[in-house]
Structures are given as structure tokens and as C-alpha cells.
Design goal:
The protein has ten helices and 16 strands. 26% of the residues lie in helices and 18% in strands. The two termini are 31 Å apart. Strands 8-9-7-11-13-14 form a six-stranded parallel β-sheet, sandwiched between helices. It has 370 residues and is of the alpha/beta class. Helix 3 packs across helix 7 and helix 8 runs parallel beside helix 9.
Length: 370
């Protein structure tokens, strides 16, 4: 799944998945793949996970129960054949695992300028001047690479303690088992009341990618030379990739998404996606996201997703430059390349419509000045 440049999310926050063996967690090895397994008819997530554990002698990676019914697990071909032979599970599909694609980088875009230009683009200063700074709002950021010690995440006196340490400790989350097993503390401050790395089940976040820091800074940063869009909001930081900001997978996103809902997030931001996404036309891929989005709507949680960085197909377009695909087929003349999950019903797809700061082959452009 491709991480989106933060510029694609400039307006994202304006309201600011036999024999019994000794079980253990197993992540995907060279001979294994990660699958998302939905519970069978009349079976809940816990029963499905227990059946898998007894059959294969390993624990699932995550058991989804807040919005989805199922679990994710690393399986060999033998494991897969074993659980298929039981005939007791619902749909089983391999989790989508992607690395971050090539992108046009802007080395001149440092955190301060990124936040400044982003907030200027959507008129955040006017909202701030009117007293709308996100106080009382809890925003979840599902992304990769967070520097939780960054100056932009220093709590201010205006941040309201809506999501308290007690609420976090009492919530039943996909991270709870790892927190108890390893003695982890996911509460960092009133500004960041919850942070967890779903990829390696830890509270270590620094990586070669700073994408998550940038996105979270745009959304709710404060304390630097510029404020984010909602500087007085609380931030939930959820890492869903490896230390390079890659290997972003549905099974991780599902776990984080469920936890964001369980923690009561007002807003969930996914500045990531897969170009030219489907919606209901691709049910195997879309099922989990559609159910998560339905649950979010039931709870009144707004979900913002990046529309993408590819713009549209065409000669000399970004899509043409990256993939050498200039035009669609005559049999399917669709120029749209909007990303999934932004393409799914229930998501708010966000793109930059009036951005004076753009990336051009590594240069920063501000108006006509390069």
C-alpha cells in the first residue's frame, strides 16, 4: 500500500486476521504468508481464533472483534490446507502487503514549512482566530514512522483530557494482549494518550520514514513555529509498517482501525492507499474496509483517506512518469486513479485542490519561485 505525501491530506482534519501444539505468535517467514480469515456462520472471532490455534499450533496475529468477525494469521501452505479442510471458516484471503512506491520527494519540505504551507492552504488560521483549534477532539493517525518526542507533540494547556489514561487502560484493544505480555505503556501524554506499533507489537516508533510525523503534525501539531490544523486536539498514533515505512498491510490497518474506534476517536486519518482502487466491485478486497467504515458511521466517526498522488492518467502525468502508463484502455476509458480505501463508500476522499506548494522532481515550488 502506498504512503501518500502529506500534501494529499491538507484538508484531512478540518474539524478539526488437527493436532494440538504449544501455541506461539508466528509472523510471516519466507515459507509463510499472512491471511485474513473471517469467522464462519454462527461463530464469533474468539471461537474462530481458538479453532485455528488448536488446528495449527500457533496464535493468530490479531483477532478482530470490534467491527469485524475474524482474525489474521501467518500460515504455511500446510496450515492453509489444514484449516480449509475443516470447512468451518468463512472467507479466507491473503492480506494485501505492499511496499511504499516510488514518489516524487521534496527534500526541502521540513516539518515547519510542511505544517505552515498545509494549514495556509486550507485556511486554518482563520479557524484558529475564530477559536476553533480542535480542543476536545480525538484524532487517530494510521500511518508509518512517528517521532513521538518531536516538539510538535508537546502538550499545551489548551488540550482537553478527553481520552484519559484510565480509559486507554480499560479499553479492550487488539494491542491489549501484547501490552500485558510485554508490560508496555501505550499512554505517552495528554497530547498523545495512545501510541502503538502494530507491525512489531511494540511502543517503538522511529524509522527511516517520517511520514507519520509529518501527517500527525499537519493534523494536530503544536509547539513548533507553526500550528497544525487542530493544534489542541489529542492524537492517537498507530504505526502500521516496518522500520522503512514499508510492508503496509490490510491486517495491520484493520487492527489499528478497530482500536481507533474502540478508543472513541472522533476522526480517523489514513494518508495511504492503493492507486485506482475499487469499492464494492472488488468484494474480496473491500469487505473488511466496508464493514469498518460502516461501524465508523454508526459511531459518528469521520474517516478521511488520501485520494492519492497520481492525479489522473495522461501523457506526462505523474502516473505516466512513475509507471509509464499514459492512457487507459479503450475498453475501459476511466481516467480516475483515486486510491482505495478512499474509493470505498463511507470514506471522505481528500485531495489538494488549491495548493501553491508542489513537488517537481525534488524541488520545492512556492508560487513561481523555485
Amino acid at each position: 500500500m502506498r504512503i501518500r505525501q502529506p500534501a494529499a491530506l491538507l484538508a484531512a482534519i478540518i474539524i478539526v486476521f488437527c493436532s494440538v501444539f504449544s501455541a506461539q505468535y508466528t509472523f510471516a517467514s519466507e515459507n509463510e504468508r499472512i491471511y485474513i480469515v473471517y469467522a464462519g456462520s454462527g461463530m464469533d472471532s474468539e471461537a474462530a481464533a481458538e479453532l485455528f490455534e488448536k488446528a495449527c499450533g500457533k496464535k493468530p496475529l490479531y483477532v478482530y472483534s470490534y467491527a469485524l468477525e475474524g482474525f489474521s494469521a501467518s500460515m504455511s501452505d500446510t496450515d492453509l490446507k489444514r484449516i480449509l479442510s475443516l470447512g468451518m471458516f468463512g472467507e479466507i484471503r491473503e492480506a494485501s502487503v505492499h511496499t511504499s512506491s516510488e514518489a516524487v520527494e521534496c527534500p526541502a519540505l521540513l516539518s515547519d514549512s510542511l505544517v505552515k504551507y498545509s494549514t495556509e492552504t486550507i485556511g486554518a488560521k482563520e479557524a484558529h482566530d475564530s477559536g476553533y483549534r480542535g480542543a476536545g477532539t480525538v484524532a487517530a493517525v494510521i500511518d508509518c514512522g512517528f517521532d513521538t518526542s518531536h516538539e510538535y507533540f508537546v502538550p499545551s494547556s489548551q488540550v482537553k483530557n478527553i481520552l484519559t489514561k484510565e480509559k486507554v487502560a480499560s479499553a479492550k484493544l487488539n494491542s491489549s494482549e501484547a501490552v500485558l505480555e510485554y508490560g508496555l505503556d501505550t499512554y505517552l501524554s495528554v497530547k498523545i494518550p495512545y501510541a502503538f506499533n502494530y507491525y512489531d507489537r511494540s511502543v517503538t516508533f522511529l524509522s527511516e520514514s517520517s511520514h507519520g510525523t509529518h501527517v500527525a503534525g499537519i493534523i494536530g501539531g503544536s509547539g513548533g513555529t507553526s500550528d497544525g490544523v487542530a493544534p489542541d486536539a489529542q492524537l492517537i498514533l498507530m504505526n502500521v509498517g516496518d522500520s522503512k515505512g514499508e510492508k503496509i498491510s490490510d491486517y495491520l490497518i484493520f487492527a489499528a482501525f478497530e482500536d481507533a474506534l474502540a478508543l472513541g476517536a472522533d476522526v480517523i486519518n489514513l494518508s495511504l492507499g492503493m492507486t485506482a482502487g475499487f469499492s464494492e466491485a472488488e468484494p474480496s478486497e473491500a469487505r473488511g474496509y466496508l464493514r469498518l467504515l460502516e461501524k465508523a458511521e454508526e459511531l459518528g466517526t469521520e474517516v478521511f483517506c488520501a485520494a492519492g498522488n497520481s492525479g489522473m492518467l495522461g501523457k506526462d502525468s505523474l502516473y505516466d512518469m512513475l509507471y509509464e502508463i499514459a492512457y487507459p484502455k479503450a475498453s475501459a476509458p476511466d481516467y480516475g486513479v483515486i486510491s482505495a480505501p478512499a474509493s470505498f463508500d463511507g470514506a471522505v476522499a481528500v485531495a489538494s485542490s488549491d495548493n501553491s506548494v508542489v513537488c517537481l522532481n525534488g524541488y520545492l515550488r512556492y508560487g513561481e519561485n523555485y
